[in-house]
Amino acid sequence: MDLDASLRTIIEAIDPTATIKHHEKLSGGLSYELRRIDTDRGRFVVREANNMRAGRWGLALSDEYSLIQQLNQTPIPAPQARLFDDSGTVLKHPFAVYDFIDGTPFLHANDPASVGIHVAEALAQIHALSLTSIDTASLPMWSEFAGSIIMNDPTVFDANTDEEVVRKALSEHWPPPEPDRLSLLHGDFWPGNLISKDDRIVGVLDWENAAVGDPVADVAVVRLDLLWCFGPTAAVSFLRHYRTLSPIDPQILAVWDLFAALRPAGDLHQWAAGYPSLGRPDITFDTMQAGHRWFVSQALAALA
Questions:
Q1: Which of 24, 185, 224, 239 is deepest in the core (most CB within 10 A)?
Q2: How many domains, the chain?
């Protein structure tokens, strides 16, 4: 079945009365191929796993789709789930189809402090969701994922991210105390996964790294990404506002900050290379490395 015929089959399964007007490939992550389909009845996104998905940490596409279906019954602005197929008869790999969310990635803003507030409110909404409202059986524990990375040193440490220093500090403070309450974590709540319109966050994409764990782990990941994208004003504003919604122990945050700082080890050049295509050529390896060093230093100081 050629691509056009496959896409017609997909749309017919969603709405037999719809006619395809246009389709195009979208830029996306390493483990999925994305394609937008425009019809006279709406716009949709096809998210197809590729060969690089195998062996990567995270939810299987079927589990991610199931989670998003459940989130559709909550106030969380996840994309509306429409179709899942793993038969291999329509597309080569398993795929899921969602409504296209009109807006742009939250990567451009004139007011970094306001960005921090919006992001804090959106993340706190996820963390406030009761785990009894979703099936968590397929969701991994974030602390187990983090521990497996922390306890397995590489053969060579990455000097660009001060990996040896970060790992040494983590080994001395791991594991952090268990939280009073476990939450649903997004796992990759960076501005590129947030869709904004009229200065509001209207969509939260890419739930493949979702897990159950201490919400402070998510907070740490977001702080580093906000620092890279919008500078310290956004990161500080985010943390200050999030703390008005949920208290955070500074030392526990420092531990999770160090784990967040470990994530780009060995990959900082690759991460930086993606920003020009997102309209942010000002975010470079040098700016990311400088932000990362500041982030690590403040975490180490909090643990001293």
A1: 185
A2: 2
